Structures are given as structure tokens and as C-alpha cells.
Amino acid sequence: MASATDIANLALDILKEAPINSIDEDRPTARLIKRNFDVERDALLEYADWNFAMKRSALPADAEAPAFGWDHAYTLPADCLRLMPLTADGTTEGIPVDHEIEGGRILTNQTGPLLIRYVYRCDKYGTYPATFTLALAARLARKMAHWMTGKNSYVQVAQQLYRETMEEAWQSDAVQGTWPRAADNEWVNAR
After folding, report:
1. CB 3.0-4.6 Å disulfide test: which of 74, 76, 105, 140 passes with 59?
2. Cα distance between residue 80 and residue 103, in whole Å
3. pLDDT mean across residues, the chain
4. How far apart are CA 144 and CA 33, in angstroms?
5. 3-state secondary structure of 107
6. Pairing mode of beta strands 99-102, 80-83
7. CB neighbour list of residue 69: distance below 8 Å, 6 or more residues apart
8. Cβ-count burial of 82 within 10 angstroms (0-12 exposed, 13-18 middle, 19+ buried)?
């Protein structure tokens, strides 16, 4: 089962640096990793619609309605990094729902419960697909490369590896699950 330290050590391997025992160590390398790990993880999770980092929720309306412009407000879950397009039934094929996001709340005229899908702050590293783990390690290596090695060549190597691992992660993630059905229309029905 992967851990934050395992992922950090993969990043250090890319930079040809010695591994650490824990990101909680009181060493400059571990402190640098710990300072950047959560932000880099969240940025990578937020970047795409990763299937393993999706959640669904039925939000109750907040007691306090918006001051103006919208009828209802719904507080986003604390672990929400990015809201997926909002639809009346919560599905990807549903009817879009007009809304705004302000101050951690969804403002809309849609009555509750509000069905949402979102990318969440997934810190269960053992659930990450291997391709995502490698992309996160490369992203960390890219962030730390110059500080740790003092060489731009390592930054370039880490950047190229990050691009490659991201492409692999996207491709792997894209083929997970069922493709959305094309909406029925006259042309399809006539066939």
C-alpha cells in the first residue's frame, strides 16, 4: 500500500537523491517535501476528472438563502476540490442547472436536495492508480528539482517525465467505466 513517503521517495528516485524514512523527518529534504506534498497532490487531483477521486453527494439547502439573485444556497463538502457540471439529476447527461459558486457555497434556484458530483481531496494513497502515483511523483520531482540538485537539467527531466506520466494517467483513467450514451435524436431513431 502506497504512502505519502513512498510517493516522495519515487520523486527522490527521479532526482537520484537518497530516500527518506518519513516526510515527518526533521531533515531539509523531508521538510521541503512535506511543505509541498499536499498542495501538489491537490493541484493534480483538481486538474482532471479522475474516476478514482470522484464522489457523489445529495446536499441539503442551507438555512440561509442568498441575499439576492438566487433562491437557494448549498455548502460545498469540505473535501471538494472541483465541482463537476451541475445537472438537475446529478448525472453527466442531465439538464444543466444555472448556478454560481461563492464562498464555498453553490448558489442556484434548484430546490434540494442538490445532487452533485465532485473531485474530492483523496488522501488514501493506496487507492491511487499506479499511473497517477507516478504522475504525482514526477510533479513533486519537478517542484523540488532545482532546489535539491541545483541543476536545470533535472528540472527538464522531471518536467518531461511529468508530461509523459500525465498522458499515461489520463489515457488509463479515460477508459474506466461506461461511456455516456449518445442522446436519442431523430437521426439516430430513424436508423
Report:
1. 74
2. 13
3. 91
4. 8
5. strand
6. unpaired
7. 100, 107
8. middle
